[in-house]
């Protein structure tokens, strides 16, 4: 979670009121932060804020915390208002950046009065947003420049690697390649563009370089000081929505310092936009839902008042709250997110705890007990249990399995995959929809161990289900993989026979085509006329992709169709 330092005096200047250190401990909670440390330096008190929400970059600075506290205490209500004046500044985006770093959004903030603490917060916000929200600059990189040193129009262009400029912190020109090799930031972030045919550059109409996104600003225009009055904000990345949100966070924080926001026209090869866009976002929530989950007897007007203290504009209509909230937030995805804000404004410490009155006694879930019984059964067959990650990636689930993504192989795996919109790592970018790839991954990492290796897993596969609120469902499955020089389809089938016999089910096999398995040695597992699984010998091409030199036979099936009471 992001941690950052803020000055008590600076916070109170932004809020407009002084508080004791003890009072600040509670006030930080309104901004979803905890007071991690307090110290004195040169006669001034400083706090270390520990943010508890990675979805609220607007709260990662003194400006964001102070704004939230002002509203929570009722000094302001409803939507914070920021006027955006239109400028005549234009940025032209090079078509060659499409596969390099395609999106840039920009803004101007004028009339700033920057002291040392304001400068420190500006740098802090830049770094925290790019590091955490921006995934170490991969998704979002931020540059802030002295606008008085820039001559528009500005060009976000694809440059030859031999181009030169003076990077921040240096006093002599370096080529773009030299910056990646020798500059501290080049070595840290150069991997984001190093293999590209061109490198991104932001230059003005006189050819002055502003920055080399996402690596380093120039010494000429990229050094903002306490003498700077007007700044140009540049944010680049791969997702237009993400860079727009980051821009909104930065410019509204600067506006909290008295800055005047001006928009910039951004001209792409196939469209144009004006940035920033601070149009409020909208959401609706049932008031009874808030009351029910909060466990509080709140009137409609009380809910409205609490939401207004959390920077919502609220219109009550027919038992619903129509909400408008700031453009620097992107965390309202469900009514529970609104409920959380109601409870923060109300105060968690103000809620009286109640001992639950239950008319039943707790007990283990029957299906979970069934899963445990299946595990014991498999161990009794001499198999070793493994527990692998639910998170995986499209390559492991499809490409390494000889499968075409989007094609249905009698639902093993299904044609659709639940993928993560903003994964921390490409390796963990999806939720698995079948288990056999996980077992092959395990085998590939244990090729140095003694054979035979006989594995099983009882685990979850996540499938698309549009009828559910989450649009997904987790299904319990059993997967088995046998690896040794003489393994055959028959050996896997013998274990399957034993499983079905112990569970009290008759089953059938139907010949099938499946690219993950050897043709003629693969079949559908059928129970009560329903296909519940697949069995076969893994195709040599699949084994090669996983780096497995031993033959492998495997089967996988859904457990829910085999669940009855009593079982085993």
Automatic annotation (TrEMBL):
It is an enzyme of class 6 (ligase). The keyword Transmembrane helix does not apply. It holds the Pfam family tRNA_synthFbeta. Its EC number is 6.1.1.20. SUPFAM superfamilies: Class II aaRS and biotin synthetases, PheT/TilS domain, Putative DNA-binding domain. CDD domains: PheRS_beta_core (cd00769). Mg(2+) binds at residues 331, 337, 340-341. Its cofactor is Mg(2+). One of its GO terms (biological process) is phenylalanyl-tRNA aminoacylation. It catalyses: tRNA(Phe) + L-phenylalanine + ATP = L-phenylalanyl-tRNA(Phe) + AMP + diphosphate + H(+). Residues 278-353 form the B5 domain. GO terms for cellular component: phenylalanine-tRNA ligase complex. Keywords: Aminoacyl-tRNA synthetase, ATP-binding, Cytoplasm, Ligase, Magnesium, Metal-binding, Nucleotide-binding, Protein biosynthesis. GO terms for molecular function: ATP binding; magnesium ion binding; phenylalanine-tRNA ligase activity; RNA binding. It is found in: Cytoplasm. Tetramer of two alpha and two beta subunits. Belongs to the phenylalanyl-tRNA synthetase beta subunit family. Type 2 subfamily. PANTHER family: PHENYLALANINE--TRNA LIGASE BETA SUBUNIT (PTHR10947:SF0), PHENYLALANYL-TRNA SYNTHETASE BETA CHAIN AND LEUCINE-RICH REPEAT-CONTAINING PROTEIN 47 (PTHR10947). NCBIfam families: pheT_arch. This is Phenylalanine--tRNA ligase beta subunit. It comes from Thermococcus peptonophilus. The lineage of its organism: Archaea, Methanobacteriati, Methanobacteriota, Thermococci, Thermococcales.
């Amino acid at each position: 979670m992001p941690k950052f330092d803020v000055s008590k005096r600076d916070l109170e200047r932004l809020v407009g009121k002084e508080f004791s250190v003890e009072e600040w401990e509670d006030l930080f909670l309104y901004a979803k932060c905890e007071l991690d440390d307090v110290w004195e330096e040169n006669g001034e008190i400083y706090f270390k804020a520990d943010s508890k929400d990675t979805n609220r970059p607007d709260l990662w600075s003194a400006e964001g915390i102070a704004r939230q506290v002002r509203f929570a205490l009722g000094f302001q209500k409803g939507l914070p208002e920021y006027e955006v004046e239109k400028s005549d500044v234009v940025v032209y985006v090079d078509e060659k950046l499409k596969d390099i770093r395609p999106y840039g959004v920009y803004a101007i903030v004028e009339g700033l009065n920057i002291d040392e603490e304001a400068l420190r917060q500006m740098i802090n916000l830049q770094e925290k947003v790019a590091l955490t929200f921006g995934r170490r600059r991969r998704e979002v990189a931020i540059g802030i420049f002295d606008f008085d040193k820039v001559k528009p129009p500005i060009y976000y262009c694809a440059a030859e690697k031999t181009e030169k400029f003076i990077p921040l912190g240096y006093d002599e020109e370096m080529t773009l390649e030299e910056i990646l090799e020798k500059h501290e930031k080049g070595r840290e972030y150069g991997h984001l563009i190093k293999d590209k045919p061109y490198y991104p550059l932001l230059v003005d109409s006189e050819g002055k370089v502003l920055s080399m996104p996402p690596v380093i600003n120039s010494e000429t225009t990229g050094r903002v000081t306490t003498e700077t009055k007007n700044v140009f904000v540049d944010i680049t990345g791969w997702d237009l929505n993400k860079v727009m949100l980051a821009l909104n966070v930065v410019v509204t924080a600067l506006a909290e310092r008295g800055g005047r926001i001006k928009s910039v026209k951004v001209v792409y090869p196939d469209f144009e936009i004006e940035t920033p866009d601070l149009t409020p976002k909208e959401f609706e929530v049932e008031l009874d839902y808030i009351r029910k989950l909060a466990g509080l007897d709140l009137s409609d007007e009380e809910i409205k008042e609490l939401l207004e203290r959390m920077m919502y504009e609220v219109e009550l209509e027919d038992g619903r709250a129509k909400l408008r909230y700031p453009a620097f937030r992107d965390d309202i995805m469900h009514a529970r997110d609104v409920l959380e804000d109601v409870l923060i404004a109300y105060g968690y410490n103000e809620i009286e705890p109640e001992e639950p009155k239950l008319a039943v006694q707790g007990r283990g879930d029957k299906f979970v007990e069934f899963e445990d019984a299946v595990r014991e059964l498999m161990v009794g067959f001499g198999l070793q249990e493994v527990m692998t990650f639910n998170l995986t990636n499209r390559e492991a689930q499809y490409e390494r399995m000889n499968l075409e993504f989007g094609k249905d192989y009698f639902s093993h795996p299904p044609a659709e995959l639940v993928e993560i919109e903003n994964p921390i790592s490409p390796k963990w970018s999806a939720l698995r929809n079948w288990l056999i790839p996980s077992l092959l991954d395990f085998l590939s990492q244990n090729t140095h161990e003694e054979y035979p290796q006989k594995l099983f897993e009882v685990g979850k596969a996540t499938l698309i289900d549009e009828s559910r609120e989450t649009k997904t469902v987790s299904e319990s499955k059993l997967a088995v993989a046998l690896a040794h020089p003489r393994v055959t389809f028959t050996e896997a089938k013998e274990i399957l026979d034993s499983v079905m016999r112990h569970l009290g089910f008759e089953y059938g096999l139907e010949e099938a085509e499946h690219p993950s398995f050897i043709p003629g040695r693969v079949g559908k597992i059928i129970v009560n006329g329903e296909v519940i699984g697949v069995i076969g010998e893994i195709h040599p091409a699949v084994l090669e992709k996983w780096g497995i030199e031993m033959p492998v036979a495997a089967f996988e099936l859904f457990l829910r169709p085999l669940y009855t009471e009593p079982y085993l």
